[in-house]
Amino acid sequence: MSADGRTAHLSPEVAERARELVALYPHPRSALIPLCHLAQEQDGWLRPEAIEEIAGLVGITPAEVLGTASFYEMLHTEPVGRYVVSVCTNIACMLRGAYELLEHAEQTLGIRTGATSADGTFTLEDAECIADCGRAPCLQVNHRFVGDVTPQSFDRLVDDLRAGRLDGDVPAHGTLVRVRRHGGLRVDDATVRSERQAAAQAMAERAGPGPASAPGGGAGAPAPSPAPAAKAPRAKRGGS
Amino acid sequence: MAVTEAPRIVTARLGYEDSHTLERYLATGGYEGLRKALSMPPEAVAAEVDAVSLLGRGGAGFPAGRKWSMLRKAPTTYLVVNGDESEPATFKDHLLLERDPHQLVEGVVIAAYALQVARAFIYVRGEFALGLERVQAALNDAYDHGAVGRDIFGSGFSLDIVVHPGAGAYICGEETALLESLEGKRGFPRIKPPYFPASVGLYGEPTVVNNVETLSNLPWVLVNGSAAFAALGAGRSTGTRLFALAGHVRTPGVFEVEMVKTTFRDLVYDPALGGGIPGGRGLKAIIPGGVSAPWFGAQHLDLPLGQDEVGEAGSMLGSGSIVVMDDTTCVVRAAWRITRFFWRESCGQCTPCREGSGWLEKILRRIEDGEGRESDVDLLMDVCDNLAPGLSWPPQQTTICVLGPSIPSSIASAIRMFRDEFLVHVKEGGCPHG
Asked: Considering A82, A128, A195, B341, which has the largest number of Cβ atoms within 10 A of its Cβ?
């Protein structure tokens, strides 16, 4: 599916979803981050072949894709483990023992922070605030939240992940959103344009006759919405 | 003062396990606010929101109505929802996205109708995997229910909404960085002016950017009226607000309380809220409004939770986060961790922020590790002064966005409040807290 006709890297199903995503935006490049997530869902990380194909899909160069992707923490341009364990150590978690937890995690997993285990199962990260501070210290595994973590519960979590007992809750790294959008946009561009013109005209008419005063001015001269509703718009007094 | 009898506006549904489903939403008055809005002219809906002084709940506290009125003359091109909540210790939008996504979707449609927008984007922080799934599922159901899409509830108004995931970058919470990110670029804040996306926004078009909590208030405002909302709180700070309470409290969590009528003391000590500091320990400092905010001490506990009240006292309510530090906390370590965060998250465009954050982090690190010099405390203040000249509040700008000048807040606070503790670190060759 790449532009120069070489063998496609993204599977036909993923490539189809990628095209659907591109179609949601007024400009294809907006789909860049969603497509990077999609490629990570297939491969676990952003492979150079995927970067090339994404570039073709959104109409920019692979260097531009890489240059953008490398800005973002969640997009990995090197392989990571099947489970990326991100222990939050920011202020709220630090006050509740996050660094002690991180040290424990290093021991349990047998790797230093930032590293991936030799068998490719775990990558350990020291994360910035993941916004679950009510359950500090907390962590994410492949961006699924685990709160109120103790050394004991951490070890249980690792055992459960190793044994596949959490496969339903924690998909392999890269799968971010398992809920698919139903289809594309419901309102096409031509309709949007004509409706916006009608709306602009209606707004101008409503603003026109009354005193050109501030908020709510002209609301006393009700005019139908762009395409009139069954009910007549209720006259409403303007604000203060 | 205590917890008031104010109604729960944005968390009313959260007692239900299935609060995120369409069935529960409809059973609890869902989409009634939208139906009401659609029966009014768009300008009247905007006026209703303008009348309540709905201060933006994202961090800057800019009135939503005023943001909208910049665009009142003609249809706006895009509405963008800022769901990139990443200010450390802020976790309220996270809650709303996961637990009441329909309320947000309804708020988005109401706002879009008021602005006559045909396309809206909900930018959700990438790390919120469950939130992304819940919002997408809610959106799918809302389309099927006729609340989004073509000819909404037979009104003739049409709107498409796209859920867009981020990918891990604090700076994308800054609205112009968020727009860059939504355009598929690095999250570099844009040079100002133009100051407001209202003039140059997404793809250069007029755009309104509103926060998740801000928009989640709209269904209630439409159903109950602006007067009922404005009757809560006081002054410019009307309604209720979510506060994310974290750190050394018995029951950390997100609490919806009436603005101004509630104080920091209520939030920290009330049994129904924070429940006090564990172990009977004393309070050392509070970080109000996110880690970009200057710290408060025990003398500020009776300050009301109002935007202007907190601003006049030299800090901000900011992102609605409050971190409590008890008397065993090492303030050098706290300031170091916050500074390390800014250093990691600086986008690197501006020299004061990119370089300053790194130098400050290194100096704090060596003090904490027992390798500090006596001159380091003054050196820290000097570097801080380069980032935000005069160390005033709100800070002087030296950079494209507010990230850089926010870095000194924690350091200058810690030094002003606990200078001796820094000196003890230097003299004793390490942290006395162990």
From this structure: B341
